[in-house]
Amino acid sequence: MAERIESGRMQIAGVGGAPMQRVGQPGVDYVGARAQAQTSGSLAQVLDRMSQYAFGQAKQMRADEGLQYVASNPPTPEQLQAAVNGDPSSLIPTGDFTYFDQAVRKARSFQLSAHFEAEGMNELNNLLVAVKNGEATSEQVEKKLTAMTQGFATTLSKVEPEAALKFRATM
């Protein structure tokens, strides 16, 4: 039964003024597909965690190998002299892409920094003797120390920039 309302549209009236209940098709629940998707998601999470752990272990192993390499192959006097002269290329790997290369660079920077500090202390002692003997002025000593610190820090920055910053702070 329908009745016309003022706008000209038709409205279906319920029986006896009672509202009519809409009948809809019940939703289909695909339980099997949903369970399979949840299982696949859980499996993907487990595999992701396992791969992250495995890659983390591999990263640590390569870094440890790099440190072991540096410990087993100390720099030769010729390599150290070349580094003092500004060429550390014989001490470090050509790339900086692998964890092994990064570990080698960091360990070599520690070695070079210690060597440069020892060289700096020797030079400082020589300069102090020169000042006491009247062979050098304070300006000459300052220029010499600045040049030495800058040179060593520049060489260290080619190996590991962070080491160069620490070296400048300690010299």
Keywords:
mainly alpha; two-stranded antiparallel sheet; 171 residues; elongated; 68% helix
How does this model look, in words?
The chain is built from five helices and two strands. The radius of gyration is 38 Å and the shape is elongated. It has 171 residues and is mainly alpha-helical. Helix 3 (99-132) runs antiparallel to helix 4 (138-159) and helix 3 (99-132) runs parallel beside helix 5. Strands 1-2 form a two-stranded antiparallel sheet. The N and C termini lie far apart (99 Å).
The shape is elongated
Q: Determine Rg (CA atoms, Å).
A: 38 Å
Q: Which structural class fits the helix and strand makeup? A: mainly alpha
Q: Profile the largest sheet.
A: 2 strands, antiparallel
Could you give a short description of this structure?
The protein is mainly alpha-helical and 171 residues long. The protein has helices spanning 31-72, 77-84, 99-132, 138-159, 161-170; strands at 2-4, 10-12. Strands 1-2 form a two-stranded antiparallel sheet.
